[in-house]
Write a structure and sequence with these properties.
194 residues, 60s Ribosomal Protein L30, Chain: A
């Protein structure tokens, strides 16, 4: 990453493949979920309240691109759903990780995975090393496709340290196995967008 980036300590990826649900599979094949994380030093850790968080917002575009490209590569197929999340260590505040996940990050992430018309679901929280966060995911072109409402549990074993932030991008290749709660279909979304 470029010199004006946040200081990266490590990256971490997690891949999950679900082949059946309730003892059944469906015609859609396995559900593959990928999360890619980057652990960075929080430049505002321990400083108390800081009004201008532009440093985090501006640096997040490069990170969004990197995480999106890597998530799509590891998924190995077309991205259908996406989500984002983040953790902030104890010496920071939740607003620090929220600054990292604004539309600047989201637009870069979206472009890196091949586009998407829907807003990107997200979650953030304070945490300690090994904290678990559920990254919500939804269909990338319309949030009303209920078959794709899902999440991915993510945990980076040694992050965040007190002075760190963890940024997470998650993607999936399809909706839930045996989804059957109605809502719009992908075909209806595609027809609507014509």
């Amino acid at each position: 990453m470029a010199e004006n980036s946040l200081q990266v300590r490590k990256t971490f990826a997690q891949i999950e493949e679900v082949r059946s649900s309730a003892g059944r599979d469906d015609a859609g094949g396995p559900l593959r979920k990928v999360a890619v994380c980057v652990v960075v030093k929080n430049p505002f850790a321990g400083r108390g309240y800081v009004e201008d968080l532009a440093v985090l917002i501006d640096a997040s575009a490069e990170i969004g691109t990197h995480l999106g490209e890597e998530a799509a590569r590891l998924l190995g197929s077309t991205v259908e759903s996406y989500g984002k999340a983040g953790l902030v260590g104890a010496a920071g505040e939740q607003e620090h990780i929220n600054a990292c996940l604004t539309s600047v990050f989201g637009n870069a992430f979206r472009e890196a995975i091949g586009g998407g018309a829907a807003w990107i679901t997200s979650a953030t929280k304070p945490g300690v090393a090994g904290a678990i966060i559920d990254v919500p995911t939804a269909y990338k072109d319309d949030v009303w496709v209920r078959s794709h409402y899902d999440s991915m549990e993510v945990r980076v074993p040694d992050a965040p340290h007190a002075d760190e932030l963890v940024l997470i991008a998650a993607v999936t290749n399809r909706g839930r196995i045996n989804a059957r709660v109605g809502g719009m279909s992908i075909a209806e979304v595609e027809e609507k967008s014509r």
